[in-house]
Amino acid sequence: MEIKCHRVACGCASGPALVTREAISFLGNVDAATGVVVDPAHGLFGQSIAGKVLIFPGGKGSTVGSYVIYQLKKRGLAPAAMINIRSEPIVAVGAIISGIPLVDRVTEEILRVKSGTVVEVDADNGWIRTI
Known about the structure:
single chain, alpha/beta, Glucose Oxidase, domain 1, 8-stranded mixed β-sheet
């Protein structure tokens, strides 16, 4: 499957998908020291986002979330790429300053990708491909 998308932060990456239908607050849902989702109320609780193509509707929460994404990148614990239905400024800024490819403007069909499926993201050319 190949899907057209909109580039928010440039770059190309691939990796296993980690998919949730829930918004993510990087300040509160994700531990910046481990890259693990620590909010027991979140569907990804206990899972690591490190090296994954993180697929989620969008972000929420504090502007500090952008810095948490940057900390994750500096520690080697960030997602390889991120895909949103509609990105918002917190996730967008975090991806841009961290050099993490981020795309959006895709349909909710993307949320049906099974976690673990290998996904390629080419933000520079505006496409997502599942392998």
